[in-house]
Amino acid sequence: MNWQQLIFGRLTWSVFPQNAIAWGGALFMILCGIAILAFITYHKKWKWLWDEWFTSLDPKKIGVMYIAVAFVMLVRGGADALLLRTQQATSVGDSFGILSATHFQEIFSAHGSIMIFFVAMGLMFGLINLVVPLQIGSRDVAFPFLNSVSFWLFCGGALLINCSLLLGDFSTAGWLAYPPLSELVYSPTTGVDYWIWSLQIGGLGSLLSGVNFFATIVKMRAKGMTWMRLPMFTWSVLGAMTLVIFAFPILTVTLTLLYFDRTLAMHFFTAGQGGNMMMYVNLIWAWGHPEVYILVLPAFGVFSEVVPVFCGKKLVGYTSMVWAIWAIVVLSFIVWLHHFFTMGAGADVNAFFGIMTAVIAVPTGVKIFNWLFTMYRGKIRFTSPMLWFMGFVVLFTLGGVAGVIMAEPPADYELHNSLFLVAHFHTMIVSGVLFGYFAGYTYWFPKIFGFKLDEKWGVRAFWFWFIGFILAFGPLYILGLEGATRRLDHYSASLGWQPLFIVAGIGAGLIAIGFCCQVAQLVRSIRLRHENRDITGDPWGGRTLEWSIPSPAPSYNFAALPVVHALDQFWAQKQSGIHHEARYEDFSMPKNTGIGVIIAAFVFLLGFGAVWHLWWLVVIGLIGAIISLLVRTFDEDTEYTVTASEIVHVEAGLRHKNTATI
Amino acid sequence: MTNEFEQGGTLSVDERAKDSTVVFGFWMYLMTDLVLFASLFAVFAVLRGPEFGGGSIQDIFSLPYVLLETIALLTSSFTCGLALLSAREGSVRGTILWLSTTLVLGAVFVGMEVSEFSRLIAQGFGPSQNGFLSSYFTLVGTHGTHVAIGLLWMLALIVAIARKGLSRGNMRKLALFSLFWHFLDIVWIFIFTIVYLTGGSL
pLDDT exceeding 90 applies to what percent of chain A? Predict the structure, then answer.
């Protein structure tokens, strides 16, 4: 190793983008970045951002930041999707579309990784942060500082994955980077390393959040909130966090071993020297399948809140819903092999996993029926959260049936790696996960910001997403059955697939319009915030504790900690009409700290150094992170006390402000 | 576990709840670490075997040497327990003394492991030799890294106790540290059994 490599690692002048579209992406990202920075500087908002947001340990603010980052990443992942759709609609016969084969591969790898890790996970942890402490009647999470570290690690991962737009390339090995393709021999550049480290850093954040929220739900529930009085969203989060705790360490190990193979010439997954590439596939799916349920369970939880409220009925089958969640949690760990029936594990093994996969549809079906029975004879208000729910039921059921078809190994041998599969899992993730989180975003928005989202644009967004989705993925089912494989950058004109690919492209365009409607919705809602103000704190006729406090929720959530006597405590309280005069007491709250940001910044440097083999940077990142952590450990002045008289004052102010607006 | 740092019932209900939450959260973290080790054990189980230019376990390790390592680590777990007992009796001197002993024993363990690793690499049994050795170095090395992190933590803890005595915060940190240290001990017992004793023979 010469001195140049020592200082610059793998960095050379050739790491910048090599073609027009790649440059376009990089420049667009840089210009957006500069525009945002300039905007903040021009309005002199840096200090405000740092003091009020970046250093905040308030889970509500952290939740908002999660969702903001997730929406930005949705733009990135969505732009990737549009490029993929354009390529497949145009690259037929003599025409080779707009992307080179390599670039196409980079884009589908980035699309998948970004959508799962930085969009779906971001929306999920965002909503969990916003809602769980409120629902369980707590002022905070179990470990507020850790929560801030988790969020900033998530940001570090998101930043690192976007660095690959400008510096070097991205992985071409798909969203799960199967070896041997992802090994150094076949992917010698930094692409796979970017993938490894952005997922590793983001994944570490998720793991810490998993521990944090598990402890929060187990330990911080309000007095009287026994397990069977837990709101359904919180139940589903508990299930998801259990899965995080069991699944994410496997991801950490798998990514590390792949990095060792690539960097230290080890032989975990190599084709030779005793490596075993199918072990990688087993490991990654032992994490990957639970991950699907990690994403979808909280979305189920959102629906379990939204449906009863907008139907004016209590949720049907609360107990069976709880058991369904835990059945899914257990079963999700014994179905991973259905992702690779074609490995050739033998008929017995495939039969076992096939049956388990079909069985997991049962608890999911229980949930679907319970929601439908809740709607039955209810007074349904067709608000946009309810529309997202109904769109979900239609699409998710269809996608689920497609899944049950593929659960049969003989059918899977035909459908494996086809667009049928792609259509199936997009149906599950877009309708199950995204629609759920959009419903939750609309539903809880007034609690956090104090005003409702504009309903007209919300409904428009739904219809564009819903119809766009059917057009984008309906054709893929048919194409898959006709033999179109996934990750296809070019095909012969004689196959006659082009019309269906063009329809899919139009569908993707409609989804993009749907997203623009959501942006318009947000802008318009902010402009009309005084008209849409939520004065009561209970805009929808809610049932759970978060609706019992004023909107926007004060930083300490509850002036007096609630005591729970029933499931749907707030509803019961409203029905009984008994109003207890609250007795305020002093309590302590965590002080803001910037150390979470600093730790994540050092970890980002570590990751960047590891990608480019800048070992000195890795050392700086590691030592910096450790020292920051030690500084925090030795700091004993991390809390401040809120006195009862202050609360009386603040609460009176909140009530005054709301009556003044009437 | 909470009573490990409760002192004579002087804590308020709030503080006690906080302590119990912290210990619970730390247990959850340990469980994630356990899954991490479980994955590495699984990888080792798949890849072990004497093929591809390496010897089997029995050919390349010296069991008595590993036994010495084991004794050092297990004894350190015992002295860590003594440190906790001293702390509960309120003896700053005793706590620091036993923690320092634990630190030395832990350092001996890490030192022996590093020298074992360098001997293996020098003899041509490095981690890039074959899948079995990759998994061996990664599993054992991950445990060793944990122990090394434990040493750093212990150092910080000794400094903290020397500066502020057995404050509530320090008692809590000590309790968490001892959980961590005993946890590493248990993982080592599995490594000793599965990697060294049964070795490549299964």
Answer: 83
